[in-house]
Amino acid sequence: MMASEQQTVVPDRDEHGAPVTTHEPAGWPWRRLRHHPWSVRHRGWLLPVLVAVLLVQMAVAMVTTAVRQTPTIDEPVYVGTAAVYLHEHSLRYNPEHPPLGKLVIAVGVALADPHVDTSFTGDQGRFGRHLLYESGNDPWRLMLWARLPVIALTLLFGLVVFGFARELAGARGAVAALALYAFSPDVIAHGSLATLDVPVTGFLLTSVWLLWRARRRPRLWLPLAGVALGAALATKMTALPAVPVLMLLAAVSAWRGRPPADRRAALLRAAAGAAVVALAAVAVVWAAYLVVDPRLRWTSAQHVPAVHGLREILVRLLPFPEAYRDGMRIQFGFENEPWQGFLFGRLYTGSLWYYLPAALLVKTPLGMLALWAAGAVALVTVRRLRAAVPYLLVPTAVLLAAAMQGSRDFGTRYALFVPVFLAVAAGCAAAVRWRWGPAVTGALVLFVAVSSLRTYPLYLPYSNEAFGGPAQTHLRLHDSNVDWGQDLGRLADRLRERYRGEPVWLVYKGSGVPSYYGIHARDPRAVPVREVHGLLVVSDSAVAKAKGRLAELIAGSRAIDEVGHSITVYRR
To answer: Taking Cα atoms as reference points, which of 507, 459, 497, 487 lies closest to residue 564?
Structure first.
């Protein structure tokens, strides 16, 4: 064997943390770098610095985005409900979502200390707008404070991504995974809002990571995994499809932690592990409701539809408070509504089973898609990583399959677990030992970073370069993929700067109040078409679904400007 082909033994770790050995050519550059004096001297602080840099840039991106965005459609409901939790200890608003995520938001609301009109009797949407715009509060300040706890949680979940990936793929894979998470446009967009999509996703990932760790120390990690699962269930009901998978993983982790000698003892240990996780999860859900109202008084402020058949059996079997079960009934009622969707220029009623995969294809950076695929292949083909497949790929697949059955094709936020879970999987691509692996992985991560930075600070309407970038997203998708009401403040600035004094006709999709921001406009749909002259300003989601009079108005107008890639300005 020639000297350039001699092999050296490189110590590594398997999924249990035990030493294993792999073989690499001795002349590979990263082997020389690993033992270079500078590398040995500085690698102790280099990794924390890289983690800090990634999280700091993510924090800056989220905070500066949050400062400029007006309330999105769902946020006033959550912020108003959080204020009711604090001041009235009542569960009457927003029962379709459990309280924990709104209790997180309530931390920021409490620090903002807004005036709350407890005599207001409107529904949850009106109460939220009343709190923001009609109670003497500053909506900019209140929304920023409400968003900050979610931003903080998003950053903490970044550490979970890093920790999970490090245990699977080492430091290099962990940095790659964290970079994908920290530069993900979807994660930044929704992590900067006072909503529930990032919290429920992060709690699920935390539970899965703790279940993975329970393979070594089940007595320590299984109860904590149950707490994290309970936090997910107490945040949003979309976590429910993951429960059977996580119960099975809990049983596997309990058995693997210390395999008993006989089969019966093994089954008992596995069942006990799953039971511990289930009991901890149920306890957390009950605790979330008890924190709001220790007496669990429950009267819904909205209609609770009746459900029948298997759905009603499922609701009745849940070991949760009645408010939770009624919230599920409301969610099932939503699923029966004829919602409109928009995909690749097609407006339709109902849902398309392939909507979420297609939307993810549009809204995911191209380098990230490549690394997801590489990571999945690595998990399946690399022997020491194969045990992680049920922990990363199976929950992702089950959650995506469940989300694809939903009737609301409103955005990739319903599949936010995909970029989060697959960021960890992508880090495993770094565990594949081939010559150009680090260079290719680094180049793809850099491609993702550049694509993400180019869209700053307009993360919500992001789409990748293959689909024309953020300016073209509204041609293919709508709602929270593009236009969720977030740019009303930017519209006000644009009208003052470029179109001062011109008559404005506005069709706005969102929860903001235009007049608060100085936008004095009329509804063009309320008058004959011939009377509409001047500026016609339309939210892009309304453009996508335009028909009748609005479609006629748009057809007779000329697009002259756009705001935030979510609002189009026409001239008539």
So the answer is: 487
Q: Which two tokens stand for residue 503?
A: 């008559």
Q: Is the dihedral of CA 465, 55, 477, 553 positive or negative?
A: negative
CB-CB contact of 439 with 430 (8 Å) = no
Q: Do you know the residue count of the chain?
A: 572
| Cα separation, 484 vs 451, whole angstroms | 22
Q: What is the pLDDT of residues 390-428, one digit of tens each?
A: 999 999 999 999 999 999 999 999 999 999 999 999 999
What is the largest distance, in Å, between two alpha-carbon atoms of the chain? 88
CA distance 381 to 394: 15
218 CB neighbour count, 10 Å cutoff: 24
- How far is residue 437's CA from residue 454's CA, in Å, rounded to a whole number? 26
Three-state secondary structure readout of 209-267: HHHHHCCCCHHHHHHHHHHHHHHHHCCCHHHHHHHHHHHHHHHHHHHHHCCCCCHHHHH
- Bridging pattern class, strands 535-539 and 504-507: parallel
pLDDT in tens, 359-388: 999 999 999 999 999 999 999 999 999 999
Backbone φ and ψ of 506, nearest 5°: -125, 130
Residues 6+ apart with CB under 8 A from 3: none
Cβ count near 152 (within 10 Å): 16
pTM of the full predicted structure? 0.91
* Three-state SS at 95: coil
What is the number of other CB atoms lying within 10 angstroms of the CB of residue 339?
17
Query: Do residues 178 and 165 touch, judged by C-beta distance below 8 A?
Result: yes
- Tokens 């309304």 -> residue: 542
Nearest alpha carbon to residue 149 among 94, 82, 222, 215: 82
- Exposed / middle / buried, residue 545 (Cβ in 10 Å: 0-12, 13-18, 19+): middle
